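Researcher: Good morning. I'm working through a list of sequences from a screen, and I'd like to move beyond sequence-only analysis. For each chain I'm collecting a predicted structure so we can compare shapes side by side. This is the next one on the list. No need for commentary yet; just the structure.
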Amino acid sequence: MSKIRSLFTSFTAMVAGFATFADVAKAQTPNRAYVNAPVMSHIPDAPKAKGHCGVFETCANTEIGLGRGNFTVTLSAVYIMPQDRDDRLWANTKGVTLNGSTIPGSTMVPLGGSIHTSNAVMPELTLKYFLTDNLSIGLIATSTRHQVMLRDVTVPALGKSLGTINAGTAWVLPPSLTLAWHFRPHKRFNPYVGVGGSFAWFHDEHSNLTRSGIGLNAGFTGGPLVNAGFDYQLVGNWFFNLDIKQIFARMHAWAKDLNDVSVGGLPQGAVTRVTVHDSLDPTVVSAGITYRFF
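Model: Good morning. Structure tokens for this chain:
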């Protein structure tokens, strides 16, 4: 009987030991939840960037501002304001007697008065290429129509006032070449200053001094220019451009074949030719939209 009691006591102690060991193991195990997820055989690629950027969109790959290698085309409205500085007038005569004064024939007579060349508004096209981030070269083209008026014209040698004479109209094609320095490359707002040259061809001239309407001529001219302006990036490859130029150029013009008309009230045929020299020196203001092609 004592052996059975001893065996039961030993079994009870063994069970208590196993229970204590299980409690210690449970206390040392973190309280975590595990999910049985499948292992991926291939990691998917990252989403690709949008393949097309709209013409009027600013996308992640849109270049900000202008810099080396960029080529732009600008369509502007241009306002040309000739200054008419330092103007001079002459008349060739066949011989005139008026108020007791005589001008012999084949004489070039200085005239008093001034020249007024009308302002003009026309479209303008500008091509520009950036040689470096700061330096660009530009070609500018437009064609404008101007009216030439001779105001308060007098013939001092005869003591005669001829009043205002409408000399005629002419179109001028003044291509300009500029070299500009841009202060803020690759920025939305990019001001610049430049220098260059302008050349002027006159065409489709019409004289109001002859019955036929022909006989008005103007020589090829040109001169240096300075300019300043800025580009501002609106959206995507579109920019707003404002530019101001000061061109220094003289005009040499003449109206000939006046034998059958009366100029300023002088006898018919007395004046055969009128010559003018005028420092046009136009101030040119343009504003327009620029598109960057590359």
